[in-house]
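Working notes for the structural subgroup meeting. M.R. asked for a predicted model of this chain before we commit to crystallization trials. I am recording the input and output together here so anyone reviewing the notebook later can reproduce the run.

Input as submitted:
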Amino acid sequence: MKKDPPSLVILTPGFPENERDTSCLPFLQSLIRTINKDFSFIKIIVVTFQYPFTTTEYQWNGNRVFPFGGRNKGKLSRRLLWFRVWRKLKKIRNENNLIGLFSLWLGECALTGHDFGNIFGIPHYCWIAGQDAKPGNKFVTKINPGSHELIAISDFIADEFFKNYLVRPDHVIPNGIERELFESISYQRTIDVLGAGSLIPLKQYDIFIDCITQIKKCFPRICSIVAGKGDEARNLEMKIMEYGLENNIFLNGEMEHQNLLLLMQQSKIFLHPSSYEGFSMVCLEALYAGCHVISFCKPMNKDFENWHIVKTKEAMIEKTLQILSSPAFEYKSVMPYSINETAKAVLQLFV
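Returned structure, recorded in C-alpha cell form:
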C-alpha cells in the first residue's frame, strides 16, 4: 500500500462547507492554503466534527475534508460522533503516511487527537486559541496534556493557561496575515470607526455604542460600522435607536471575509472592545489594512505599531478622539506576523 506523501490531519470543530464559505474560520483557511503553497509535499486531511451539517466527504481547494455533521448535539450523540471519528482516523492512518495530528482547540478535537496519537505513536499538537485557556475547561482534566503538545496562540494565552492549569505550553505560534487577500489599491478612509466580530456579551459591543455616543459630541457626523452576527444583535439595534445613532452606527451583519477586509482598508480606526481575546485575527487584519487598532486585550508581551491598548472605556474614547482629531496619525500597513511564518512554525513541529 502506498505510503507517500506525508499527511497531516487537522482536527477542527468546524470548517467551510465550500470555497465560497469565507466567513468560517478564515485564519484556518489561510493556514491551509499557505501550507498547500509553501509546503506542497505535505498532504492535508481535514476532519471536522460539528460543521458543516453533512457527513459526505468533499474537496476544499484540493484538500480532502471528512465532515461528521455533529450539530453540537447532546452527550450521547457526541460520544457516537467520537467513535465514528476514531474509526475514520484508523482508516486514514492505514491508507496514508500519517506524520501528525493538529487539533483546534483544547476540547473534543484535542481529546481525540491526544488519545489516538498516544495509542498509535503519532505526534499530536493542540493549538490553544482563546476561551479554552479559561478556568473550568473540563477537557484539560480528561486529556491531562503535557506542555510539549500544547501551542498557545499568544503570550497572553500561554500565561493564562499556566495561571489556570499550572502547565505552560512549550510553543507560542501566533496568527499571521495572508497578504494575497488584500487589495493593493489605496482607498479613501471614509469610515471613521469599524468593529467586527460575534455579537455576543463577551465582545462588549454595547461599549462600542457608548464610545460612539460620546465621540459624536465632537464629531456629529461620525460614521461607524459593526460587522457580525449574534444573539446581541437585537439589543444593540435597540440601543442604537434609543441613543439616536441610526445615522452614525450601521450594523452590517455577517459579511464575506473579502468584503470585510475591503471595509478595513476604508476605515481609520478598528475598535475592539472585547473583554477577552487570545489573539484576535480581525485586529491583525485591521492593522495590515492600515487601521489604528484600539483594544482592551494585549496578546503579546511586546507592542505593535498602531495597536493601542487601553484599560477603560474612557481611555478608549479618549484615544479614538485623539486619532480622529490629529492629522499626525499615519494610516499605514503594519504586519506583526505573516501566515507563512505561522505555517512554517506549525510544520516544524511535525517534520
